[in-house]
Structures are given as structure tokens and as C-alpha cells.
Amino acid sequence: MDIASQIKTTNDELNRLNVTLVAVSKTKPLEVIQEAYDAGQRIFGENIVQELVGKYEALPKDIQWHLIGHLQRNKVKYIAPFITLIHSVDSLKLLEEIDKQAKKNDRIVDCLLQIHIAEEETKFGLDHVELIALLRSEEFTEMKHIRIRGLMGIATNTPNEREVKAEFGELKSLFDGVKVSFFRHTDYFDILSMGMSADYKIAIEQGCTMVRLGSTLFGNR
Q1: What is the rounded CA–CA span in Å between residue 101 and residue 147?
Q2: Among 133, 127, 131, residue whose Cα is nearest residue 111
Q3: CA 161 – CA 147 distance, rounded (Å)
Q4: pLDDT tens digit string along 23-61?
Q5: Is 157 helix (H, G, I), strand (E, B) or coil?
Q6: Which of 22, 42, 49, 93 has minimal Cβ neighbours within 10 Å of its Cβ?
């Protein structure tokens, strides 16, 4: 199946389930992203700031760019003028930098807090204690140029579906708890970003609202 057909089929499936598709375009050349754009896809995810900036400059300006990879504080200034959503906020210090750079650009930048749910130590993210401490901190309450839209997590890379299901289930419970405890009076805390090409169907079963798909749409790199 070509990219355009795959985009359409996947979006049709996800729209019925009220799940948003982020097309993971990292390492993909401009013409491949343009092909997906021409097929109607508008949300693309990149994990390297330099690559993201180059694509932003070269491609149509109505694309919504999501930063899905680990973000270093010294790189925030390059994406603050245009980024739609940062999935990978894993510390208070990073959030403070995003708030600072967003203010310089007279913007409010939407962010997800990345939660560490996988068994692997290599994955980034806040644990439950760090998450609650961040949300209760005085520094957080003073930020005026970021908006926390929800949570993001990456499951363990394993063929054990039961383990993946448990990790996604745990993140969904945490999302629900945080929404009630900290965002009860807002309508914007509504994104649970979990699930990639290998495990997105499990993520949907567990209640995600956004999936990040690369190889499902574009084939293997």
C-alpha cells in the first residue's frame, strides 16, 4: 500500500475511535512528508530539533509540528517560535525553559509531561513522585506561557503484550488521577499520547487519545 492510501486508511480507523494520528516523520525526506501532507495528514512528529527546524522551514506552514524526542534545554529556543506540541517534557527545569522561550515569542506552548513507564532504564520521563512534585511546585504555578495538555509515555520494547498493556493501563490511571487532582476545572488537559507502530492497538484499548506512528505509515527505515 502506498503512503497516501496508508495515511487515509489509518486516519479513517483512528477517527472512528477519536484518536489523533501523529505521523512520525523523523529521518524521512521532504518529498515523503509532502506526499503524506498531500494525502491530508497535517500533524507530524520529529525527534531531533535541527531536523525539525529544517523541515518546518521547507514545508507548508499549516503543518502542526510535534517534538516527540528528548529535548535539551539549550535547543528549546529554536522551536519555541512555531512548535505545536512538545511531548517529551521530563523535568521542571525544561518546562521553565520552554515557558521562558515561549514568553519571548509571545506564545503559549502546549506540552505533555513524559512519564517513565518502561522497564528499560534508557527511557526518559518523570516518575509518579516527580510528576506530583512538579505539579505542586510554586515554579509551575507561576508559569504563564506553557499549557499542560496531558501525559506521554513509551512502553517497554518487548513482545510481551501483557507487560505493555499493564504499562499503558498504569499511565491511563495516572492520567485520570492527575486530571481530577490538578486539572478538574480546565478543558484542555485531554491528551494521552501513547502507542507507536508496534503497540498502538494495545494503547488504544487502554484509552490513549493520540498515537505516534512511523513505520506503519512509511514502511521500515
Answers
A1: 13
A2: 131
A3: 33
A4: 999 999 999 999 999 999 999 999 999 999 999 999 999
A5: coil
A6: 93
